[in-house]
Amino acid sequence: MTEAAEKILPRIEIDPKRCKGCSICVDFCPTNVLEMKGALATVVKLEACTRCDLCDLRCPDFAIRVFD
Amino acid sequence: MAEGAAVKKKQKVNVPFDYDKYLRKGKLPHIWCPGCGHGIVLKSLLRAIDKVGLDKSSICMASGIGCSSRTPGYVDFNTLHSLHGRAIAFATGVKLAKPEMNILVTIGDGDALAIGGNHFIHACRRNIDMTVIIYSNAIYGMTGGQVSPTTPEGAMSTTSPHGNMEPAFDACAVAEASGASFVARSTAYHMQELEKVLTAAIEHKGMSVVEVLDSCPVYYGRQNKYKSASHMMEEIEKKGTVSGAQAKNLSEEEIGDRFVRGILKQDKDGVEYCDAYDNLIAKVQVKK
Ligand SMILES: Cc1ncc(C[n+]2csc(CCOP(=O)(O)OP(=O)(O)O)c2C)c(N)n1
Ligand code: SF4
Ligand code: SF4
Ligand code: SF4
For residue B270, how many other CB atoms are within 10 A of its CB? Predict the structure, then answer.
C-alpha cells in the first residue's frame, strides 16, 4: 500500500451561520488548505491539512472545526 | 490481529474541543465584529477552565460595560454584567459573600485602567482571590474607538486624531506595583500560550491579572492603517512581543518597546484577602 492510499483525510467543518469572513484561519493556515470565497472560509486543499488545529484555535467565531 | 496496527501508520487523532458545553445555547453568533480578538480570548479561557476542571456552577464571571464585557452573556456560568468600571467591585462583593466561588472578571483595558483604575489597583493591593482578564485592544471599542490608557503614544483614535500625545500604561507593571500576586501577559495570536497562562492564573490563589493583547480591527485597525485582523495580529501581537524565555537573553535596549509575555510574577506566600478577613474574625472572637 502506498502512503498516499493510506492517508486518511480529516474532515473540516465550517459553519456558514457562524463564519464572519475575517480570513484569520485562511491567513494563518501553514499549508494553505483554506481560501476565502466571498465572505466565507472554504476548504480548497484538504490533502495538505496537517490537523494542526491552528484554524480552529484562532477562529474568533467558533465557526471552524477539524475532525478525523 | 495486529495486522491493521502494523500496516497503518499512526495518525494523530483529532477531536475538536467541545466549546458548546460551556456556552449558552442559541447565543451564537456573538456580537463581536469580524476578526475581533475577543472571541479568541474567550475560547482560550474556556479551554483553560476545562483544563483546571472547574465545575460550571462554581464559577462567577463578572464584567462591566464594553465589547469585552459582553463575554459573560455567552457562557453557562453564574454571570454578572454590571457597570462600566465597576466589574471588580461587584466581583469583590461576590467573593466576600461566597468565598468558595471561583471568580473570573472579563474586562476591557478602558474598563480596567481608566474608569475602573481605582478598583483595579485596590483589588490588587488586597490580593483578593480572583482572575482578572484584561482584553487589551488599546482602544474603547464599544463607544467608537476613543483613546484608552493603553493606546500607544502616537497612535490614532477618534479622540487623538493627530496621534496620541499621552504615554501608555503598562497594565502588568501597574498590577505588579499595586500588589497582585500573579501577573502575566499573552496575546490572542499566541492562543496556546494564553491557555496555559490562564490555567496557571485560575489555579493561583490570590489576585491574578492577565493582560491579553488582542485586536479591534474595526476601530484601532482602520484608524491605524492595518489591512486586516490577521495583519494586526502579526504586527502587534507577534512582532510586538517577546516571550519571557527570549527576553532573558536580550538587553532592555534589544527588547525596545516590545512587550514581554508569560508569567511575570507569581508570589505564593502573600496572604489572600478572604483568609485575612477570616483571621481577623477569629482574632476578634477570641478576645471577646
Ligand atoms: C459610567 C459610564 N461611562 C461611560 C460609559 C460609556 N462606555 C461604554 S463602554 C466604554 C469603553 C469601552 O472600552 P473598553 O473597556 O476598553 O472595552 P472594549 O469595548 O474595547 O472591549 C465606555 C466609555 C458607560 N457605559 N458608563
Ligand atoms: S477564522 Fe472563523 S470566522 Fe474567520 S473566516 Fe475563518 S472560519 Fe470564518
Ligand atoms: S488544521 Fe492546520 S493545516 Fe489543517 S486547515 Fe486548519 S490550520 Fe490548515
Ligand atoms: S468594536 Fe472593536 S472591540 Fe468591539 S467588537 Fe468590534 S472589533 Fe471588537
Answer: 16
Residue A45 near chain B (CB below 8 Å): no
Is this structure's pTM higher than 0.90? yes
**Stretch (H or E) spanning B117:** helix B117-126
pLDDT band at B9 (very low <50, low <70, confident <90, very high): low
CA max distance for chain B: 78
Cβ(A61) – ligand 2 distance below 6 Å: yes
Asked if residue B265 lies in contact with residue B182, where contact means CB atoms within 8 angstroms, the answer is yes
- Displacement of CA B100 from its chain's centroid (Å): 21
- Mean pLDDT across chain B: 95
- A3-67 CATH: 3.30.70.20
Residue in B115, B134, B151, B126 with CA at minimum distance from that of residue B209:
B134
* Domains contained in chain B, CATH given: 32-287 (3.40.50.970)
In chain B, what are the helix, strand and coil shares in percent, each to the nearest 5? 45, 20, 40
Cα dihedral B128/B129/B134/B135 (nearest 10): -150
Of A22, A28, A67, the CB nearest to B16: A67
Establish how many alpha carbons lie within 13 A of residue A5's alpha carbon, considering only the half-sphere containing its beta carbon.
3
